[in-house]
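Hi there,

I know you've been waiting on this one. I reran it after we fixed the sequence typo, so this is the corrected version. Both the input and the resulting structure follow.
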Amino acid sequence: QVQLVESGGGLVQAGGSLRLSCAASGRTFSRYAVGWFRQAPGKDREFVAAISWSGGSTYYTDSVKGRFTISRDNAKNTVDLQLNSLKPEDTAVYYCAASSVVAGTPNRIFQYDYWGQGTQVTVSS
């Protein structure tokens, strides 16, 4: 069992930065890939970024490449998402999730076993 808690959301102006953190409980956290998804009002939840269990592989959706960076510290059971050059269209609730998938790109909702409660990111223009 893995429990996930996100933090770090907030209100920021366009062009600004935020750092989201996902804190996990459970001794087996380091065996899971971790992803970040987001959901804007009236829209489906979408993949943002993911990192393999070792941290050796990272994945990003095209719209955030070069602006967002995902990282993890398995000793601290945390996964961070650095959000730079934020745009109003990045406004959403951001969720972290843990996946036991070990092959392929972990960018689909059904691949994830555990989810956090979400943290709001609002980017003003």
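Quick highlight: The CA atoms of residues 6 and 22 lie 4 Å apart.

Best,
R. S.
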